[in-house]
Automatic annotation (TrEMBL), chain A:
Cellular-component GO terms for this entry: plasma membrane
Taxonomy of the source species: Bacteria, Pseudomonadati, Pseudomonadota, Alphaproteobacteria, Rhodobacterales
Stored Pfam families: BPD_transp_2 (PF02653)
Keywords: Cell membrane, Membrane, Sugar transport, Transmembrane, Transmembrane helix, Transport
Protein name (record): Simple sugar transport system permease protein
Organism of origin: Albidovulum denitrificans
Membrane topology type: Multi-pass membrane protein
Localization (cell): Cell membrane
Chain segments annotated as transmembrane: 12-30, 65-84, 91-113, 158-175, 205-224, 254-271, 291-310
From TrEMBL, chain B:
Gene Ontology CC annotations of this record: plasma membrane
GO MF annotation, one: ATP hydrolysis activity
Stretch list, region Disordered: 1-20
Name of the featured protein: Simple sugar transport system ATP-binding protein
From TrEMBL, chain C:
Location (main, coarse): membrane
Subcellular location: Cell membrane
First and last residue of the signal peptide: none
Species: Albidovulum denitrificans
Transmembrane regions listed in the UniProt entry: 12-33, 53-75, 110-128, 140-160, 199-219, 240-263, 301-324
A GO cellular component annotation in the UniProt record: plasma membrane
Keyword field: Cell membrane, Membrane, Sugar transport, Transmembrane, Transmembrane helix, Transport
Protein name (database record): Simple sugar transport system permease protein
Recorded topology in the membrane: Multi-pass membrane protein
Alphabetized GO MF terms: transmembrane transporter activity
């Protein structure tokens, strides 16, 4: 494989990893607070639809992003209500919300635009446009690093950079702030937080809200960055891959970046079966590449590669009085 | 009922100098669904004193303290702190009012460091770094002042229980608690650790702090408290000055009657050896060695009692014999080895070899609360050929009929086998389990805490049945934290401490005092 | 929380959940500018208004009975199997391989063989998550989700690269031999008086009903069922009773996977007569709703499966005759799961108001 | 009433299915009649949809896409009085009309244009699902490219092996970007809904694209070189107009019959030079006259101009 091809695949990796990364970090907040969320997929989808619709109607991508976040937050709020307030089963709530999102996005888009459950294509300001990083043109002159900077790092939409920025931000928030300390504690032992005089419910709702925001960004990126508009089921299981990445990353922000980049790389590679064939002189079936994130996650879950220990209070509603 | 006029009279004498009490509760009530955990409770604690609270399991002690700490909300009642009426809707308010609490079950984040646990909820700002630095400094001072040494950077799960408790105390002190509540702090401690704790508590008292200490142990009450309150069935039955009372009186107040548990039983006729345990070691899931090489034998027609403070390896011993936990060493039943780790180390195999097991925790181990009584009667014996219709199907009718008989013979009330287990009272649940296990006519009966939370009538009945089984020539291994029960029921007594048997005594050659010393790890030949 | 009487818990809670889901669906329909009443009428007409509609409703219900039972069995062992979809797809592969392996002379021979194939493949697909849960403590929910996706990829690979006949363009197996054709209700003497036209509901329906009965026997009449239920209620107690957690987890999931796989005799063998991509069409997920709705009892599952069959056929009719997208049924399905499975405490709290016992301690 | 069933991409795929939709709408506008329509949601649903439509008395029933072939073969005999029309597939039943197009011819024309418009000498092809039908597009395209510029390089990719490949704009966009990095500056997308992503990415990257099935020039005015139009709309219109008396049998829609063509309108006028147009129109005449035969991949599953 020549360097140009590699750069092209890495470039593609970064694009494809971004929604995974945002969703993965979203899940990280929720699960760190002890609320399991298999509804990432649904929230992303909802956000993608809201973004597509609002950006088209308003002509502004930022209005679209806000709408996307709002859409995702509605689902997050329902999940919070079900799993925090009413102490319901978090897994079932997540499954249910995924179904609701899958259906309601099509219903809404269809009723708004009558284009078979799509939103009309976005163009111009209704969509994120690539940003050239400074000196990207001139950087080509520098060997190796230069093209990498110009081809892979530069030329993405703003949300890609926001996604990358979210990684250190998440790490900092989680491990260097009061909020993070409490959040981690509430996911490990909510009673410790409660007896320390901090509201478990408020913390968990805050975490779920952050999940909503990040999933909103992930969905907005799908509709206005990666594509130009919303299409039926356009997230195509990315929420579940993000969930897999979260486990793969053992609920840690930097590992989440690694995991999502790896899974994004698989997706990018799956687009170029020709490269693999040329490289290894045999063809790996594309379905095998598609399934790779899931297979790897199962391997990690099985404890063959380190142990993935979820937050201890995860999945359990906090009940003081039986 | 038991709250007499004299007890309330005594209560008023608790404020001689006219100083406002540090804590005063008036008419506090709390119900959990149908369970009335606290009924119209009033209590006063004077500043700078150590106040004890005693009461049987489930008397409502923890609930009352949790209300004071804002963990639960009372249904009725008022709280006064230093004479001021104070609302305590949550723990934050309690902390603000200067109250700190060390719960019976610690509220620590296992994978956080000591420092992180200490600052949790009491951070100084949005960023952690300054808070951590400050806490490190304060902790050092506190360590010096009260002898509360603990490495601030150690992760909680690496610490011993005693050290974890210190962290809890530090947490309270870090929050400037003037009133410290400790819920059964010594239940999990070694005698050394307990002594150390008491020294700390005395130090705190000298600094003018008020301490409330919940315990089951009369000895501790007598040793350290200034005043003591007694709770029974959700009610406060008395508050007295420690100096003016004695253990017998407290015990009577606690149980509501003279405690004289004397089971009518004839002398034992020990026959051949049924059970031989040799050098048994048990390591639990957290890789902690719970039983550290014990050996003993039980003969037919003999009740072998194991006394000890809860958490000294008795539960694990029962679990191993009952096939719930693996172990190393050797156990022989009727001369044949029991499998301790392999395929035949499960409960089914134990039952097949003639071991019946009445577990300590009846609600979580002994039965399935959502199952009916008759389903529970087959629990563990569901493979019994008598319960099968054919190779595939169970004979539910047979189980039902069998259960009906057992319930009647054991006086389970109501004797309705189709009722769900959760709808029986605790005592009757216990009878269902006993009926199931004893009527199997086992060679060896394991019983853990047979009368925990059971009323007097039922206690006598249960004791009678256990003795009957002995008299039928069976072996019984009895584990109980109630010394009185051990004393009156056992034909031979062993005391466990820290995973070892401290010594064996004949009941007629010993008394509660001597056993108590062994339970505390003092003396004995096993240490 | 106040405890509800049993009848309220079994009948009232699901009923109210269903009504809530229905009410919100109506609001959704109204919000997209359609008439909920008209929609309901179309659904009722299309799904149960004619023998033909029933033919489809029962066809869908058959699949849902299998997957609902699959979820139920696992639920009783307190295992949440969301892998029904993948297991059903693998079951489809098993059925297809059996059907294509021999020139079957008659369906009476092909059906039992295909059942074994479907059940075996479904069970095998459940076995790995079960093993990982029982031995390595991996959360079964996550592993079964992963296995759904791996199953989809595997099926695509099998269809595209292995099973697709030469010259065929769409990724599907060849048609099964005529001897594997299962009689539809239209072809069964007696039933053909009602079902006068070709309908997809076929003899698998009776297999499904039989499975309901069998699962009831299993859960409440056999030792294994006893152990499954005991283990599901309390793992420590089960260990005390000498019930092996490993054994129960494995058996419960194997049975669950086998049931999900068995579904394929209905759709793959009975209806399409060949294996296509995504053959289960989400029935594995609907099994969750069916089990929740049916309160994890075979009779409840049967009733809930009919309800969802109605929803599915009715929803298809909506897509056909109105401008309400077919996705409405996905929304309703999600709402039912949400209300019966996650917001059930809300419903109970609400009902609790009416069943509050007299306060204690008044006397 | 007539009825139409769209394949998985949906009737608004801006491509194949939308062409069919346009035909139906044209019929409706002209005759004032009404028709029933249905969009496939999943692979397993085909048979029900087909039966249900036939059941309600719709006649003729038109379906778009080869994937209906198998079920139609099964369903058609059950409804002998109903006429069916299937596009892109041959189904041998007495009551079925099979409409197939000579996509290789249309692709040949746009291939020539691609080669002439390319500055790099490298052109791209992005197919949807990897099936002989799509290879037929690719092969005709490659022949056209070579005819105009024998030295040109052709980069060809397929989106996938399942019907999902028809509706994956993300993948389409990524493939377009990959082809651009390999030097391609004109990309022909024969990939249904996936093509939307290809055209979008090409426009974003500043290179040219070629649409398919419908006239897609308007999607990115001035950035879509042309479109290989396949007059599915005409076929649908025709089938609807014939009504229940529709003629059955195989109906080959070739260049001559107006079945395929390249699109020229205001949106791409500036991109098509007079030389280009002259060359293409000449080739068109030759093909119609039989002087040029474009190889049909499906006839022998080989392609002289391109290896897959
Ligand atoms: N969170 C709760 N929900 C419901 N019931 C509770 C709860 N906590 C305690 N109870 C019930 O309230 C009663 C009093 O319990 P509490 O824990 O206060 O007793 P205790 O005196 O501390 O007993 P122990 O000595 O065993 O600790 C018991 O019947 C108990 O089952
Ligand atoms: N959750 C419940 N639902 C229905 N009935 C119950 C429930 N809990 C207890 N009961 C009934 O209420 C009665 C009193 O129960 P409780 O546990 O308070 O008894 P108790 O006085 O503690 O008796 P014991 O000394 O035998 O434990 C019992 O007869 C029991 O059948
Ligand atoms: Mg307590
Ligand atoms: Mg009781």
């Amino acid at each position: 494989m020549d360097y140009a091809t590699l750069l092209q695949i890495l470039d593609s990796t970064l694009r494809l990893a971004t929604p995974l990364l945002l969703a993965c970090l979203a899940g990280l907040f929720s699960e760190r607070s002890g609320i399991f969320d298999i509804g990432l997929e649904g929230k992303m989808l909802m956000a993608a639809m809201c973004t597509g619709a609002a950006a088209y109607l308003s002509g502004s991508v930022w209005v679209g992003v806000l709408a996307g976040i709002a859409g995702s937050m509605v689902l997050a709020a329902i999940h919070g209500l079900a799993s925090i307030t009413f102490r319901g089963n978090q897994l079932i709530s997540g499954v249910a919300l995924n179904f609701i999102a899958s259906g309601i996005t099509v219903l809404a888009a269809q009723s708004l635009f009558r284009q078979g459950g799509r939103t009309p294509p976005l163009s111009g300001d209704a969509r994120f446009n690539p940003i050239e990083l400074p000196f990207a043109e001139s950087a080509h002159a520098i060997p190796i690093i230069g093209p990498f900077y110009a081809e892979v790092l530069s030329g993405h939409t703003i949300l890609v950079y926001i996604g990358l920025l979210c990684v250190p931000l998440t790490w900092w928030a989680l491990f260097r702030t009061r909020f993070g300390l409490r959040l981690r504690a509430v996911g490990e032992n909510p009673a410790s937080v409660d007896t320390a005089g901090v509201s478990v419910i408020r913390l968990r709702f805050a975490a779920v809200a952050i999940t909503g925001i990040l999933c909103g960004l992930a969905g907005a990126y799908m509709a206005a960055g990666l594509q130009a508009g919303f299409g039926k089921e356009m997230t195509a299981g990315r929420g579940y891959i993000a969930l897999a990445a979260l486990i793969f990353a053992k609920w840690r922000p930097w590992y989440a970046l690694m995991a999502t980049l790896l899974f994004g790389f698989f997706q990018a590679l799956a687009l170029r079966p020709d490269v693999i064939t040329r490289l290894f002189h045999f063809s790996i079936p594309v379905p095998a590449l598609d399934a790779m994130p899931y297979i790897l996650t199962v391997v990690v879950l099985a404890g063959f590669v380190g142990r993935a220990i979820p937050p201890r209070a995860g999945g359990e509603p906090y009940v003081k009085e039986r | 009922m038991a709250a007499t006029g004299t007890t309330s009279g005594r209560q008023d004498t608790a404020a001689p100098e006219g100083k406002a009490p540090a804590i005063e509760l008036r008419g506090v009530s709390k119900a959990f669904g149908p369970v009335q955990a606290n009924k119209d409770i009033s209590i006063r604690v004077m500043p700078g004193t150590i106040h004890g609270i005693i009461g049987e399991n489930g008397a409502g002690k923890s609930t009352l303290m949790s209300i004071l700490y804002g963990f639960y909300k009372a249904d009725a009642g008022e709280i006064f702190i230093n004479g001021q009426k104070t609302d305590i809707p949550d723990s934050q308010a309690a902390i603000r009012a200067g109250i700190g609490m060390v719960f019976q079950h610690f509220k620590l984040v296992q994978n956080f460091t000591v420092l992180e646990n200490v600052i949790l909820g009491a951070e100084d700002g949005a960023l952690l770094r300054p808070s951590l630095a400050k806490a490190r400094r304060v902790l050092k001072e506190l360590a010096k002042e009260y002898g509360l040494d603990v490495d601030p950077d150690e992760v909680i799960e690496e610490l011993s229980v005693g050290h974890q408790q210190r962290v809890e105390i530090l947490k309270a002190l870090y929050r400037h608690a003037d009133i410290l509540i400790l819920d059964e702090p010594t239940g999990v401690l070694t005698p050394d650790e307990a002594d150390h704790l008491f020294r700390i508590l005395r130090g705190l008292k000298e600094q003018g702090k008020t301490i409330i200490l919940i315990t089951h142990k009369l000895r501790e009450i007598m040793e350290i408290t200034d005043t003591v309150s007694v709770m029974r069935r959700g009610e406060m039955t008395a508050t007295v000055k420690t100096a003016e009372t004695d253990p017998e009186q407290l015990a009577e107040l606690m149980v509501g009657r003279k405690v004289l548990l004397n089971v009518p039983k004839g002398p034992a006729n020990p026959g051949r050896v049924i059970l031989e345990v040799e050098n048994l070691r048990v390591v639990d899931e957290d890789k902690v060695e719970r039983v550290k090489g014990i050996s003993f034998t039980i003969r037919e027609g003999e009740i072998f009692g194991i006394a000890g403070v809860a958490g000294n390896g008795q539960s694990e011993l029962l679990a191993v014999l009952g096939g719930i936990m693996p172990a190393t060493g050797s156990i022989r039943l009727n001369g044949k080895d029991l499998d301790l780790t392999g395929r035949h180390s499960d409960g089914q195999s134990r039952r097949a070899r003639g071991i019946a097991h009445v577990p300590e925790d009846r609600q979580h181990l002994g039965m399935i609360m959502d199952f009916t009584a008759w389903e529970n009667m087959a629990f563990g014996y569901h493979n019994d050929p008598a319960y099968q219709k054919n190779a595939l199907l169970m004979n539910n009718a047979a189980i039902l009929e069998d259960s009906q008989g057992k319930m009647e013979r054991f006086d389970v009330r109501p004797p309705i086998p189709t009722l769900a287990a959760k709808n029986f009272s605790g005592g009757n649940q216990q009878k269902i389990i006993l009926a199931r296990e004893i009527e199997r006519n086992p060679d060896l009966l394991l019983v853990g805490q047979p009368t925990r939370g059971v009323d007097i009538g039922a206690i006598e009945f249960i004791h009678k049945r256990i003795v009957e089984l002995r008299d039928a020539g069976k072996a019984v291994l009895l584990v109980s934290v109630e010394l009185a029960e051990i004393m009156s029921l056992s034909d031979r007594i062993a005391v466990m401490f820290d995973g070892r048997i401290m010594g064996e005594r004949m009941p007629e050659d010993t008394d509660e005092r001597a056993l108590g010393l062994l339970m505390a790890g003092v003396g004995g030949e096993g240490a | 929380m106040t405890q509800l009487p049993r009848w309220a818990d079994v009948v009232l809670v699901p009923l109210i959940s269903l009504l809530l889901a229905g009410a919100i669906s109506a609001i959704v329909i109204w919000a997209i500018g359609e008439s909920p009443w008209q929609a309901l009428k179309t659904m009722v007409d299309g799904a149960v208004g004619s023998a033909y509609g029933w033919g489809y409703t029962l066809y869908y219900a058959t699949s849902f009975i299998f997957t609902g039972l699959a979820v139920t069995v696992a639920f009783h062992a307190s295992l949440f199997n969301i892998g029904g979809e993948g297991q059903a797809q693998l079951g489809g592969l098993g059925v297809a391989l059996v059907c294509l392996a021999l020139p079957w002379p008659h369906w009476t021979l092909a059906l039992p063989a295909a059942m074994i194939g479907g059940a075996l493949f479904g069970a095998a697909w459940a076995a790995i998550p079960a093993y990982l849960q029982a031995r390595r403590g991996s959360h079964i929910v996550i592993t079964t989700i992963m296995f759904n996706y791996i199953a989809a990829a595997l099926i695509i690979y099998m269809l595209v690269s292995v099973l697709k006949p030469v010259g065929q363009m769409d990724p599907a197996t060849a048609r099964f031999p005529a001897g594997t054709h299962l009689p539809t209700l239209h072809e069964i003497p007696g039933f053909n008086l009602i079902f006068t036209k070709q309908v997809p509901a076929n003899v698998s329906l009776f297999v499904a009903l039989f499975a309901c009965w069998l699962i009831w026997i299993l859960l409440w009449r056999t030792r294994l069922g006893y152990e499954i239920r005991a283990f599901g209620r309390s793992e420590p107690a089960a260990k005390y009773a000498g019930i092996s957690p490993f054994r129960v987890t494995m058996y419960a999931m194997l049975i669950s996977g086998a049931l999900a796989g068995l579904m394929s005799i209905n759709n793959v063998m009975g209806e399409s007569g060949r294996l296509v991509q995504n053959s289960a069409e989400g029935a594995g997920f609907i099994g969750i709703a069916v089990a929740l709705m049916g309160r994890n009892h075979p009779i409840g599952v049967f009733l809930a499966a009919i309800l969802f069959g109605f929803l599915y056929q009715g929803g298809a009719e909506l897509g056909l005759w109105t401008s309400i997208p077919i996705e409405l049924r996905t929304v309703v399905q999600g709402l039912v799961i949400l209300f019966t499975g996650a917001l059930d405490h809300m419903v109970r709290m609400f009902l609790g108001q009416f069943f509050r016992p007299r306060p204690l301690g008044v006397a | 009433d007539p009825a139409i069933i769209y394949d998985l991409g949906g009737k608004f795929d801006k491509s194949f299915n939308e062409a069919a939709f346009n035909g139906a709408e044209k019929w409706k506008a002209e005759t004032g009649g009404s028709y029933k329509e249905l969009e496939m949601q999943s692979e397993a649903q085909r048979e029900q949809a087909l039966r249900r439509l036939a059941e309600t008395g719709a006649n003729p029933v038109v379906m778009t896409g080869f994937a209906f072939g198998d079920v139609l073969n099964k369903v058609a005999p059950d409804f002998p009085d109903t006429k069916f029309a299937i596009i892109d597939m041959v189904v041998d039943q007495p009551n079925v009309k099979s409409v197939v197009f000579t996509e290789e011819q249309g692709s040949y024309l746009v291939g020539m244009m691609a080669a002439m418009a390319s500055k790099t000498g490298t052109v791209g092809f992005i197919g949807g699902m990897d099936i002989p039908l799509i290879r037929k597009f690719a092969c005709g395209y490659a022949e056209g490219v070579k005819a105009a510029n024998p030295d040109a390089t052709i980069v060809a990719n397929m989106t996938g092996t399942t019907p999902a490949a028809w509706n994956d704009p993300v993948k389409g966009a990524e493939l377009a970007k990959a082809q651009k990095s390999q030097g391609a500056d004109v990309i022909y997308a024969a990939a249904g809904g996936t093509g939307i992503g290809v055209l979008q990415a090409a426009a974003d990257e500043g290179i040219l694209s070629i649409g398919v099935d419908s006239n897609q020039n308007y999607l990115h005015p001035g950035q879509v070189l042309t479109s290989m139009v396949k007059r599915v709309d005409n076929s649908v219109y025709e089938a609807f107009s014939e009504g229940p008396d529709m003629t059955t049998g195989i109906n080959v829609m070739d260049l001559k019959a107006g079945g395929v063509d390249y699109a020229l309108d205001d949106n791409n006028k500036a991109l098509v030079t007079p030389e280009m147009q002259a060359a293409v129109d000449e080739a068109k005449a030759k093909i119609e006259a039989g002087e040029i035969t474009v190889h049909d991949y499906m006839s022998d599953e080989t392609c002289p101009a391109l290896t897959f």
